[in-house]
Amino acid sequence: MTDQLLVKMENITKTYGHIEALKDVNFHLMSNEIVGIVGDNAAGKSTLIKILSGAIKHDSGKIFIDGQEQKFLNPALSRKLGIETVYQTCALVDNLPIYTNIFLGRLLKKRIFGIFPILNKNLMRKESWKLLHLMAINFDSVSRRVADLSGGQRQAVAIARSIFFNPRVLILDEPTAGLAVKEVKNIEDIVLNLKSKGISTILISHRIESIFRTTDRIVVLRSGTTVMDEKTSNLSSNIVVEKMFGIKSN
Amino acid sequence: MGILTHQIKSFKLSMFPSAVPILISLGVIFSITADYFFTIENFKNILLNGSVLSIIALGMSVVMLTNGIDLSVGAIISFISIAVAVFLSKGLDITYSIIGALLVGSMVGLINGFLIAVFEFPPFFVTLGTMGVINSMALVFSDGKTIYWEKNWFNTIASSEIFFLPIPFWIVLLLLGFTLWFFHFQSFGTYIWGIGNNEDALRLAGVNTKIYTLISYIISSFLASISGIIITSRIASGNPTVGFGLEFQAIAAAAIGGISFFGGHGHPGFAIVSGLTIIVLINGLNLLGFSTPWQYTGTGVLLILGMFLNIMQGTGEI
């Protein structure tokens, strides 16, 4: 299968007051690819993916999705273009049940008497159950509040929400932060499983070993600029760490 | 096990906010201690006054669910009382007077909501400001006096009954129906609950949270306007200070009805019960000869007790 260019970001710049969060950053993503973005705190990783997901606007540069320039990205348009994002905080609403969180922003409805639209809670529960089962995630009930879930379960719900609408690009911002070893492995398996289903992933993580286990290519950002963009197989963790902090290790 | 069967089997009184057991307890206590409490006329009186507070408390609950507050509701009631009295005294048709008053009241909510949702000003200060402005305007337009009009059917709105229950109580039941519809069968309720808990999550999911916040303040002021109309009908005059202190009772009712001060928790439908609870307290204290200041004290104590019980039950969170 010929890989196609899904996302291209050219010369992206973003400043917050006097702080240059991103300076002329270039980034691209191919189909059937998992790309890891790594860097120290404040390197610009989250800013880059928030721009791609439409959550914030860049100051200059161009964004191409499937070869088409997108000038006015916002979260809804980004999703329409097949880009789904799972933020570091999971962006879940704790006091709502699992199935509502999975359909947040896109609640399913049906019409009673053929006229009045109402929430279709039964269908949302059913589809949520099917989806989580497909991802090999087990919950006793999808009506449980998200507040009652563990960190790994919350991530699983957030990822399930992202893939329900068949995205072509999935962005995961620190999906394994604060998780136990077993839960980290589960998330890695989910990411690799998604690749086999044709979903390309952009993975931001501080866990270098996770990055090496799952990605095809690694991009390193430092102080808002791209310092490396290389195939994972050509790299070692030492080289990546050196590039992240701009130091030479012994 | 079906969802409904599961809910029936797991039913416990502790699932309800403290307003329910407190209402039952107060009812028993005052039935024993206060003459005239356990009479049909007094119950109708409680339903009438309770309906007014329940309606305001319902609006306050919706706003508080979004992690906001509306201190202007008492002032809106006073202003609407003057507005509708002025309309009627000038000979305007009753229906247009009511519609005009509701529109005027809703405009205050629109202003509150716009400043809070769009400019992201703190709700406490915005509604404190509009409270001051609206209170002043009520005094200015009325010249500080009570306004009367030629007697007409408007005066009978509050006192008329349908199937032995006062019309305001039927309005409350209708509003309860709307509340259940919009909170359980429409996305509105989901997003109002969500805004109070994690507005960023909704925004990132593509939900226009500003619109929902704006609507919540319009609902609060619209419902306050309805209460203002009922009160004005009841006292058959426009009074520029009639709403004084009602914002405090509304907040107390929302709180003992299980609405969290930090948003996202509680069901606005319980405002109906909690409004009645506070009025039962005031009514009972009044029948026992306690003056108005003591009634305020009682409301404050009830607020603290109610919140404490909610936290212990787990039906409310601080």
| Shape, principal axes of CA atoms of chain B | globular
The main sheet of chain A orders its strands as 6-9-10-3-11-12
> Would you report the number of β strands of chain A?
12
- Spans of chain B with pLDDT under 50 lasting ≥5 residues? 1-11
Largest interface: A-B, 25 and 21 residues
Largest sheet of chain B: 2 strands, antiparallel
Global shape of chain A = globular
Class by SSE composition of chain A: alpha/beta
**Overall pLDDT of chain B:** 90
Helix-strand blueprint:
The complex is a heterodimer of chains A (250) and B (318).
Chain A (H helix, E strand, L loop, with lengths): L4 E12 L2 E12 L3 E5 L6 H9 L6 E6 L2 E2 L5 H6 L2 E4 L11 H5 L6 E4 L3 E4 L1 H14 L16 H14 L4 E5 L7 H16 L3 E5 L3 H7 L2 E6 L2 E7 L5 H9 L5
Parallel strand pairs in A: 3-10, 3-11, 6-9, 9-10
Antiparallel strand pairs in A: 1-2, 1-4, 4-5, 7-8, 11-12
Chain B lengths: L2 H7 L9 H15 L6 H26 L7 H17 L4 H25 L4 H20 L18 E2 L2 E2 H18 L2 H18 L4 H27 L10 H11 L14 H17 L4 H22 L5
Antiparallel strand pairs in B: 1-2
Would you kindly provide a brief summary of this structure?
The complex is a heterodimer of chains A (250) and B (318). Chain A is an alpha/beta fold.
